[in-house]
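User: Hello! My lab partner asked me to get a predicted holo structure for this protein. The small molecule is 2-acetamido-2-deoxy-beta-D-glucopyranose, SMILES included with the sequence. Please write out the structure tokens.
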Amino acid sequence: MAALRMSRELTMLVVMVSMVQLLLCLQVEAGGPKKLVLYAHENRVPPNNTLIGSAAPNGNLTDEKFGLIKTVSNTLRAGPEADSEEIGAQVGIVVLGKDVLNLYISYTYYLNNASEYGVSTIAVHGHIDGVYEGNRVFAVVGGTGKFASVTGEDTSPFDAVVLDESRVVNTHTLTLRYPPYYK
Ligand SMILES: *[C@@H]1O[C@H](CO)[C@@H](O)[C@H](O)[C@H]1NC(C)=O
Ligand SMILES: *[C@@H]1O[C@H](CO)[C@@H](O)[C@H](O)[C@H]1NC(C)=O
Ligand SMILES: *[C@@H]1O[C@H](CO)[C@@H](O)[C@H](O)[C@H]1NC(C)=O
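Assistant: Hello! Below are the structure tokens for the protein in complex with 2-acetamido-2-deoxy-beta-D-glucopyranose.
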């Protein structure tokens, strides 16, 4: 009886060890950095501006700002210098809420082959309080490539660095987490 129980325990142990080995085999090569600083270069001078109002609300349902959608298409560069290498884009939308306190943002960072992350993306959603002058913190909600299934926070200061109106640098510091099934 005792021998039988022992053999069952041994069998269980073998099964468990096999499952752990299987899980180790299933680990996928992914998982980028835990911290990433991105420099989004903005231009505020028409016709080359990189933030434009692109859809106005219809009808007489709202005041003039509520419902306005702006499209952003900034250039990601390796550093804050205007001539540093282009490593991708920050493309997305800003939606104006019912008052200046409530704005919705959604954008994707696209990192091209010139970046050290190959062709990868990071998706961000968030809320902007239009009058709060502290750091803006947005949610990192996913990604692809090196950033597959990433989550975390994207923090940027209220004030961008304005070299001149055609060279505005928004610094984004991302703290990133990867699911445990990635190394
Ligand atoms: C807009 O961009 C074009 C192409 O890069 C450039 O030739 C032009 O000088 C820019 N215009 C302004 C106002 O900066
Ligand atoms: C919109 O509706 C309000 C309330 O009915 C009215 O007072 C206002 O004149 C309207 N505005 C326009 C631009 O039609
Ligand atoms: C990026 O580089 C890889 C490897 O050289 C290549 O296979 C891929 O086509 C490139 N992608 C783009 C969008 O340039």
